[in-house]
Amino acid sequence: MGDSIINRQHYRVSRVQITYRLEIGRSSGHHATREIVRWLVAFVATAICAAISFVWLDRPIATYVHVHNMRPQQALLEQLTHMPDPLIPIAVVALAIIGLRILTKRPLIRLEIAGFLCSLSVLFAETIKDQLKFLFGRTWPESWAHLDPSFIGTGAYGFNWLHGGAAYESFPSGHMGATCAVVSVLWIWYPQWRALWVLAGFVVAVALIGGNYHFLSDVIAGAFVGGSTGWITTMLWTSWLSLRFPRAPKLDGAHSAENRIRN
User: Fold this and answer.
1) DSSP 57-94
2) What pLDDT does 246 receive?
3) pLDDT category, 220, cuts 50, 70, 90?
4) What is the mean pLDDT of the chain?
5) Closest CA to 42 of 224, 251, 186
6) How far is residue 171's CA from residue 62's CA, in Å, rounded to a whole number?
7) pTM above 0.85, yes or no
8) String of DSSP letters for 146-160
9) Can you give the pLDDT at residue 45?
10) Residue 146 Cα to chain centre, angstroms
């Protein structure tokens, strides 16, 4: 009788709606290797696309945007680039609130878990982005302060390794990273709204490139950083569940948003 109650408890804990048929308690070395290979393939693809963009696309796009700049569109694009700005403070507040809720050992609904993972993903992406900006030290497409080096303003183009400073923080795009850090988590937890998540990322990317706030390769790299943190955060969550509840069944996607995690 006691074992039956424990088994049911494990099952309730594991009934979290995640797609991709993530396995809880049945992770194998082969499965882990496959996921690492998929990430490495995505990394290589991103590096190739960013390199192609750097050599052949970034400068023509930046020049075209600068020459064909129109004030009404510029104002709209500038507003769109501010869409990801609240994500960092929201992530900090959400993480604190949901963290306190977890400490009280109260059940979390699916939306709260997704919010918790989105918050972690955004903060991870922001930290990684800062380090990468310092590492690459890339100048911006246009000068945003007087006499700052930039491609349009002074002809400066390329990477200045380990060069800090506000004028050398174009690569990767932090706004795109923060956007994709959230979108990648929501892509997994709410697959029925994937078209909306893609649209959100696309709008931010167009605004960043169309306003000459970033090169195309900056946006590509930022998207990969954010997508990676969202995916890794979700993997860490499922791994934690598998360690804490080793007898939980294979996670096959639930059918109700009211499924809860209970301690």
Assistant:
1) IHHHHHHHHHHT--HHHHHHHHHHHTTTTTHHHHHHHH
2) 63
3) very high
4) 82
5) 224
6) 15
7) no
8) TT--BHHHH---SB-
9) 98
10) 32
